[in-house]
Design goal:
N-(1-d-carboxylethyl)-l-norvaline Dehydrogenase, domain 2; 4-stranded mixed beta sheet; about 35% helix; Rossmann fold; globular; 7-stranded mixed beta sheet; 10 helices; alpha/beta; single chain; 2 domains
Length: about 300
């Protein structure tokens, strides 16, 4: 049944935003999608590699192009906000769309990395609740209204304030220890993403003999640091290896952004780890090197020569 009390807004119409539009509409919820296109999105098509099926949803009629921002005095108000943005866009997305968001709204983020969510927590209205989500689902945006589901994955959503109630439709995804899930995902991203960008390879190629030593050195550095948070370094290494194998045919989002000369989330992945490591006087030279390479577009061959010193 469509809820009279839940009015959902998805901010961001990338692969994850479109995937979650399909999830919420499947639940018969009232969902509006905020997107950047100047024209209607039309009918959403979903190609499902997992079940080897294809299906379409009704036309995405509840969609607001950014060019059609409503006058703040006559804006529709939403009390369930799902942010499917890049980490570096999260805070600006909140500010730019505050006139859509009720004072008692539940905010849910689905961003890579860490740091932006904590910043949002400090600037949101007092009556608003913040939940942080992380997912390992695979989705690829093929067109403005077409996505491919490329892999199953876990979804975890938790609160920085455990007393806050998660919307009833999302309770199957609730976890009481969201920080552990976020740090695990951060570790995976900090190893796979920048190394694939450095060598311009798919995830599975990180295990090729010529790249494997770099991958292992990076993985070991990250896992050893996260022992500070109570992680078992050996078990975390196994988890990262398993994801690398499972996603062998994927091109990481950072590789796609880096090769496309677009802004990456490196500051919210490697940058966050380095910031936390500094607090306990822990050195992470490989993460520092990778951050410098991605953020400042350093020469690949020069960076690899420096990297060799850490092997």
């Amino acid at each position: 049944m469509i809820s009279d009390t839940e009015n959902w807004l998805i901010i961001g119409a990338g692969a994850i935003g479109l995937l979650w539009y399909s999830k919420l509409t499947d639940l018969k919820l009232k969902v509006t999608l905020l997107h950047r296109h100047n024209t209607k999105l039309g009918t959403l098509s979903v190609l499902d590699d997992i079940s080897n099926t294809a299906y379409t949803l009704n036309e995405i009629s509840n969609a607001i192009p950014l060019k059609d921002q409503f006058n703040s005095d006559h804006s529709p108000i939403f009390n369930r906000i799902l942010f499917c943005t890049k980490s570096f866009d999260l805070v600006e997305a909140y500010h730019a769309n505050k006139h859509y968001i009720s004072d008692d709204a539940i905010l849910i983020t689905l961003c890579n990395g860490m740091g932006a969510q904590q910043t949002l927590d400090t600037i949101k209205s007092i009556g608003q609740s913040l939940f942080i989500g992380t997912t390992s689902e695979g989705a690829l945006k093929l067109d403005k209204n077409q996505i491919r589901k490329t892999g199953q994955g876990d979804i975890f959503i938790g609160s920085l304030s455990p007393s806050d109630p998660l919307p009833i439709n999302l309770t199957p995804y609730y976890t009481a220890n969201i920080e552990e899930k976020l740090l695990t995902k951060l570790a995976i991203n900090a190893v796979i993403n920048p190394i694939t960008a450095l060598f311009n390879v798919k995830n599975g190629q990180l295990l090729d003999p010529d790249i494997l030593p770099y991958y292992q050195a990076c993985r070991n550095e990250v896992c050893n640091f996260l022992k500070t948070y109570g992680f078992d370094a050996a078990k975390l290494s196994v988890t990262i290896d398993a994801v690398t194998i499972k996603t062998a045919s994927n091109r990481s989002s950072m590789l796609q952004d880096f090769s496309g000369n677009r802004q990456t989330e490196i500051n919210f992945i490697s940058g966050y780890l380095l910031s936390e490591a500094t607090k306990v006087n822990h050195k992470m030279p490989i993460q520092a090197l990778l951050l410098d390479f991605i953020a400042n577009k350093r020469d690949k061959h020069a960076q690899i020569l420096i990297f060799n010193a850490f092997l």
